[in-house]
Design goal:
Layout (H helix, E strand, L loop, with lengths): L1 E5 L3 E6 L15 H13 L8 E2 L8 E7 L2 H12 L4 E8 L7 E11 L4 E5 L7 E12 L4 E7 L6 H8 L23 E9 L6 E5 L6 H12 L1
Parallel strand pairs: 4-10
Antiparallel strand pairs: 1-2, 2-4, 3-4, 5-9, 5-10, 6-7, 6-8, 8-9, 10-11
């Protein structure tokens, strides 16, 4: 992880594909605990350090994660996420170009807890949650396409599931139908940008994360910056 923003109330990190946001059955140390240690050492704090998890990012996904450093910030951020006040933009690399260069996708997602997977349906199903996102193809390479995705809802594996549903599974995402894994075990989905009004200071926070250290990602980023 790399800390990309910090103040008295929040801290934002750019996570790598191997890191987990919150503790799970693997027993691996989550980012929340790593941050506690980091803050303890940085500020030489004697007692316990507070780090609150406001949202999650799947383990194989890289990019921006927002944590709260105070109880007040955590409560307000939780409300903001619930109300859709935190705007999240992701970049996804796919091999199969989607049917349209730009579209709003609306599906009904049913989560399978046992398989840790969601299934997207075109029609309402029992226990399904509505999932909406907007995507736009913003770059092409010889073999892949780069999509910019804006989430309108926050569902389990939403981007992975919805893009697979339209025939464009994310590079490296075996769980949702891509043919082979990435060398680092991650998938080519990156939480690129977050925009929100600070829960305490009310200032606009707008953070963009550098792409992962990978030739394909860097080529896409370089190509876009030259335009």
């Amino acid at each position: 992880m790399t800390v990309v923003y910090e103040d008295n109330h929040i801290i934002i990190v750019n996570k790598t594909v191997s890191e987990i946001v919150q503790g799970d059955k693997t027993g691996d140390r989550p980012l929340s605990e790593t941050l506690k240690l980091w803050l303890k050492q940085k500020y030489d704090k004697p007692g316990n350090v507070f780090v609150g998890v406001t949202h999650r990012l799947d383990r194989p996904v890289s990019g921006l994660v927002i944590f709260a450093k105070t109880g007040k910030a955590l409560a307000r951020l939780n409300d903001m996420f619930r109300n859709g006040e935190v705007k999240k933009t992701s970049w996804a690399v796919v091999k199969n170009s989607p049917p349209a260069e730009e579209a709003v996708l609306k599906h009904y997602l049913v989560r399978n807890e046992k398989m840790n997977k969601s299934v997207a349906w075109d029609t309402v199903k029992p226990k399904a949650k509505e999932a909406v996102l907007h995507y736009k193809v913003i770059a092409h390479s010889q073999n892949y396409h780069l999509l910019e995705v804006d989430l309108k809802t926050g569902r389990h594996h939403q981007i992975r599931c919805q893009l697979a549903k339209i025939g464009s599974p994310i590079k490296g995402d075996l769980k949702y139908g891509f043919s082979r894994s990435n060398p680092d075990g991650g998938i080519s989905l990156h939480a690129r940008r977050v925009r929100f009004v600070h829960p305490v200071s009310k200032q606009l926070i707008d953070i963009t994360a550098p792409v992962p250290d990978d030739n394909l990602w860097r080529a896409f980023e370089a190509g876009l910056s030259e335009e």
